[in-house]
Amino acid sequence: MADDGDRSSDVNWVVEYKRILLRVLDLRPSGMRQRLADALGANRSFVSQITNPAYPVPIPPRHVEIIFDVCRFPEADRRAFLEAYERAHPGRLQQPHRPSPHLRHVTLYVPDLGDPARNAELDKILSDTAMRIAGLISGQAGGNDDSKE
Length: 149
Prior knowledge:
53% of the residues lie in helices and 0% in strands. It contains six helices and no strands.
């Protein structure tokens, strides 16, 4: 067996960029995963899947800039992440995709419904509503102009 000294074919680049993301997240204050989930319009389990190197779930290209913003990626980690991402998914970052609206984190206090399933449903409704409002404001899909009240 010939060894050409090039290990790049042996590297799992999805695992590599997830390790970089995980390292950056581990350096951030607690609550960062929830802030990231909120900014992505997703739940924490999605954030767990895209940050855990054991899961093959790739990070969608439209989420990369949001992740950089929310997690305040240091420049060296950003470059390493982008290199690994490009090796894992050649050309995907250059493909046109509808940009996600720039979101910010807010805290909203709502009543505890006394049931985890109902609380999760309320959280999802509020998150979906906020995403639809952001879509309306930015002129993206998600709103219906025919429903003026």
